Records
---
Amino acid sequence: MNQKSGKASMKPEQPVYILNSASIVGTKEGQGPLGLLFDKVGEDDLFGCATWEEAECTLQKEAVGLALDKAGLKPEDISFIFAGDLLGQSMATSFGISTYQIPLLGVYGACSTCGETLTLGVMSIAGGFADKCICVTSSHFASAEKEFRFPLEYGNQRPLSATWTVTGSGAFVLGSEAAGVHGKARARITGMTVGKVVDYGLKDSMNMGACMAPAAAATLEQHFKDFDTVPEAYDKIITGDLGKVGQRVLIDLLRDKGYDISEQHMDCGIEIFDGESQDTHAGGSGCGCSAVTLSAYVLKQLEEGNWKKILFLPTGALLSKTSFNEGMSVPGIAHGVVIESIG
Amino acid sequence: MNQKSGKASMKPEQPVYILNSASIVGTKEGQGPLGLLFDKVGEDDLFGCATWEEAECTLQKEAVGLALDKAGLKPEDISFIFAGDLLGQSMATSFGISTYQIPLLGVYGACSTCGETLTLGVMSIAGGFADKCICVTSSHFASAEKEFRFPLEYGNQRPLSATWTVTGSGAFVLGSEAAGVHGKARARITGMTVGKVVDYGLKDSMNMGACMAPAAAATLEQHFKDFDTVPEAYDKIITGDLGKVGQRVLIDLLRDKGYDISEQHMDCGIEIFDGESQDTHAGGSGCGCSAVTLSAYVLKQLEEGNWKKILFLPTGALLSKTSFNEGMSVPGIAHGVVIESIG
């Protein structure tokens, strides 16, 4: 039987499989350490569009199309699409994927959204309500800077604690069968922990790693308790976009709670760019960061047997231009998903 | 067994119950035709806060608190909260309900969000992943005008096709038992139809009823097919906020598809204000409109046996300030939820 596990976690009776997935990124991500692993790298960051927002719509559209192709499926094979992005009123989602005409359940969890879409996708399939689902998220450096910070033309200087929003989109096709017309599935999802809003009162939108780390720590502690497990049970514990500052805060906070994750911890934002040569400071961030890293790099490690079991924990900073301008803090949220190799 | 029904619908094996619910509204809504039915009417629309956004946060917080009280439950009795609003990055949700420390799954579907939260809440409970859930949405006239249109101080004139964003929040406690510590449940949810993005290319953000009506028509047609049913099977078919213009468009579009809903159709936006005396033009709108009307008026009719079975269909216009300014259209989406009296 599917079950609630502890206070905030869930365990599907049967695992739900990631049948296939796709990643598409911008030029800068293509030049980074994971560059060769992405399915598609854009020639320029407008992706043939007139605006940054349209470019981000195109990212979602292409990621979903590619994921469907790789899985050998058509839009009509998909029951629901769970999707989200960072823009006001989820603009990239509303305009990006409508061509597929798949029933849409829109999601918002800032940069934790990839974890939330996977959680809901698993619930819908393991609950018997869907055959196959797609989970997709995106972000775009230029649309995000415009939405949250300063116009690019202003040439604002960024402190070393700032992260660089990833231009990219990752899409995942979920289903209940380990193998089928889609070939062999890439991995299986065996548990989820839903996060709460955690607010330490930090107000610096140029240091989102520190703002999100307490939420990541809270979800991790809850996860270990709910599943009665320890960090050593995972080959990797992979946060979304804490960056180098947030990573230190997370490891310290968890040490205070009695957990040492320093051996297992990895952060998608730290992996995706070379901070030194790419001038990205603390690391990458955005809804697209964890999604493309999961699709291109993490699932590959699971497929190749380098890792057996990981905890994927996208982290979100719940700020808006309005909340920032009104002097409010930047609360965080993080959702955890247990992903295992098919073996 | 829970099941997918047709192309876009779901049927839980056992109904999920609306254990209790609460509504809180602003002064104008309190003066409207449903005014006496709401649980709480604010004395002024700032609800004691310094900004419109904080006021909307307070709406969500109070609606959830009231719903918990009425159900005799505490925050720790709730597995998950599904929540959303209209503001950029769902600000009212991020800051409004964090005090309860309930694991949060944030949702965005514009004004269809209330239907989406109920759909996901039912999935989580019927799927065995949650004991009890809360679904909450909100909107606020002043924060919405600022987010989507003009500063209030500008005194912009509004065409007759415009709607008036409802200041209010509705919260619903869902569970699997018809009766318990929470008393007798208010109603039960027996089916859901998830909508697609439907874009007829309309660009008038002052006529959102016309923008959303094609999406409502598409979801209704899909619903009738998926459940092999007809409009006459429902005592009422209740859209969220089409208003008077959208209502005419919806009825006409469905007539072309072979369905006549003119007898059953009701719109929360038309019910909540007296357009003549309250100068609200086509009707009320917003995430809060359908939520407070469902809680205060629709569930009461089901409890009193005046209606046995209704289809609740909140409708959303997927626009943002950015999409509007970039000349894009206003696509719509609508999610349907079948609600029946306990009997």
---
Amino acid sequence: MKPDTAPQTSITTSQHRIEPAGNKDRRPRVVIIGGGFAGLEAAKGLGKLPVDVTVVDHNNFHLFQPMLYQVATAGLASTAISAPIREVLHRQHNVEVMRAEVVDVDTQRQIVLLKHARPLHYDYLIVATGASTNYFGHPEWQTLAPSMKSLNDALKIRSMLLEAFEQAEFENNDEIRRKLLTFVLVGAGPTGVELAGSIAELTHKTLLRDFHNINPHQVRIVLVDALPRILPSFPEPLAQRAAKRLRQLGVEIRTGQQVTDVKDDGIVIGGEFFLTNHIIWTAGVLASKAGTWLGAETDKSGRVKVQPNLAIPAHANVFVIGDTACIMQDGKPLPGVAPVALQSGKYVARVIAQQLAGQTEPAPFHYTDKGTMAIVGRSFALVHSGPLQITGFLGWLMWVVLHILYLIGFRNRVAAILQYAWNYLTYQRSARIILVDNPRPLNTHEDT
Amino acid sequence: MKPDTAPQTSITTSQHRIEPAGNKDRRPRVVIIGGGFAGLEAAKGLGKLPVDVTVVDHNNFHLFQPMLYQVATAGLASTAISAPIREVLHRQHNVEVMRAEVVDVDTQRQIVLLKHARPLHYDYLIVATGASTNYFGHPEWQTLAPSMKSLNDALKIRSMLLEAFEQAEFENNDEIRRKLLTFVLVGAGPTGVELAGSIAELTHKTLLRDFHNINPHQVRIVLVDALPRILPSFPEPLAQRAAKRLRQLGVEIRTGQQVTDVKDDGIVIGGEFFLTNHIIWTAGVLASKAGTWLGAETDKSGRVKVQPNLAIPAHANVFVIGDTACIMQDGKPLPGVAPVALQSGKYVARVIAQQLAGQTEPAPFHYTDKGTMAIVGRSFALVHSGPLQITGFLGWLMWVVLHILYLIGFRNRVAAILQYAWNYLTYQRSARIILVDNPRPLNTHEDT
């Protein structure tokens, strides 16, 4: 194991990254930016083709984003909803995984520019960089009203929620205690609704059992949206039932009300000031920088406008998929949801396969909407699939089964099922751990 | 749920914190600083006594420290070895839990001074603040050679290990690649040995399967100690077998060699320079600030010298237990291990019970050494218990059963068993997640 005993030649250096121009024998290289649902599905679809695939992501893990709110509310461990991208793809021998940050794309030279690493050459490029949260022209609100897009976001929200109760437990000033126990969620789409329901459950079932000095009536969970109702993507009767359920759980709903200001100590909703320092922003979607990289036309949310085969107009070998793309169908853009990401990833792999085989292109991408689901607290979910509209416990069972089956990697599936079952039976939250930024043993001799 | 509908009187304000001097009816208050093994065991022992107990910790969770190296090497999720202190104690109605940082103790006025909270009055004080790592007069080495004492420490080490492989995979410069793949562990006690074995397993069994460009011969794991042999607390034959096993796993052992310098790009061991930026420090123990707070006499490691009943000489109502105390037995101090912490916590609860009952004090504290264990990679452990000396698979089975039984809280036990079994069967590491400090969606419009 001494370095000088290592054979100097046995290391496989990655020669492919900038290809010598005249190399005719090499296989085409597909670079996929992003290891989310769309990117991984594309990588899997390319598994058996005569191509070399590089998946680039700034994280080393795939995140099961639809269950992120469970991490934020201490229901699941962060590792239960994430899996190393290398592990997910390790059976596919034509795929390599690279943890790096993309800074730009040069579509003329066909290279992806990386931070702290040499550029990556591509023959085909698949951009699946996802989306972030839209503060609608108020980027300064981001620090005051954090969003929930990454694992770290969720862990910070978890700490924020738990810390609020720890402080409120020993706070004698009534006004400060009310401020500590007021939680405002901006955005009443599925994420906002699921988070609100889960915070309500966490609060009323789990935390209040362990915090003896907190008056349940002082806990206030407010769900705000500028639109006239919650869950605009669901049929109105389902949304109404969800709203009723949320109110039963103790959530105040403020729809049709605009957020006009966010401050250090509160938020202004429809002209009314709410004293709080616990605001979570789930409203609005802003696509990644891909449009800028590619010099492509984007819609208002920054999503890249794509052709029917998901390539961009100027470059037939550059595809944009998932939340990053503005895919028009029946005259309107498809929503940024996991099924669209999965189906577009699969489709693009097929397009590349057919191009390589010299076949004509497949039919334009067509999204098949199998339905939408949203969970509202423990054992209550909405399911909308074609003519089917289900609410309540049956919907919840369908949600649980489907979401857990989706979880990538068998191990995570087992861990998630067990944690979920355990939480359900006991009202415990297994992950109520406040990870402090400054990890320091209790008051040690720092200066010795 | 509107604040103005909340009854103003129903909140139980915590009046006890500074007691009115003349209140004769109140029950004695025991304040326990620290929610580790010692502190929790004391709190449990006081459960049915006519006292009010306050457990103060700067974390909201208890940490099962002996398995911390499993988190650092991606074997277990952080939530599998930790449990909210409130959850552990929530059945004990005379115990309240407070997340706060202690800044000092006033033994004259019998109060504990807290950061950002009012002082806590006590009738009995139990100090169980644990210990940190001793850099032997080189505090500047701490940032270059982090220690592994907290959950955050372990998560940082996990990211460091995984990141090294991510970078080495795409590094063409041979020297830089060797530097990235060199891991130096300072301190060959149980923590250093367990960590070295686990890093070797992680590297050779799990990571090298997923990283195709890394030459296994370039991975170097070095275990250093100034003492002449590893595991000085074990009998020599056992330590020899552990050393042999470590070498089989690919660990270089450098005993009898002093670390004389730690730099940005390497470490000097016995005069030789090792190029690396992956150094982990597990050598040496430094007790918490408790000695300073109490104005008590301490030993060289900062541990408070206690009387046979674990009280400090100047104050019969102040006890120091666990790693914070220097407890003499048979002419030498007891080691800072979990069983000493557990037994001393239990003992102190009994002393207080007997004092309250007006009985004579129990016999001086006597530690019963049931044995020591250390694990060396997968399915190999040392067990030393009285005349019994076991190594190998049988030892490992004993280790697994005992450690998992120790894990506080049924839920964690189940999760840990399953993760452990799954890892064992598959060589997978379930928690290979690099949590970046700067959680940001992939290249989003930061400026819009």
